Amino acid sequence: MRSAMAIQVLPLSGGSRERVWTLVDKAIAVIDKSGLSYTVGPMETVVEGPLERLVEVAKEAHLAVVEASGGTVSTYIKLVS
User: For 46-64, how does the pLDDT look when each residue is reduced to its tens digit (9 = 90+)?
Assistant: First the structure.
């Protein structure tokens, strides 16, 4: 089943604006590495693919930012199938 996911990964303890952008880039790198079609927007990134794979990518992106930040991260997703 082809689905779409809007994802927003927000490091809550990121520090400076530049540091936050660097952390968000970690999430985008995970999405890019997935090989799925995606579009980066100013507030969220939209990814298209099989529903199961989208959920996996969301988890991987979230954990990549948690690991890189060493702090709290909130990830918001919207799914449509």
Answer: 999 999 999 999 999 999 9
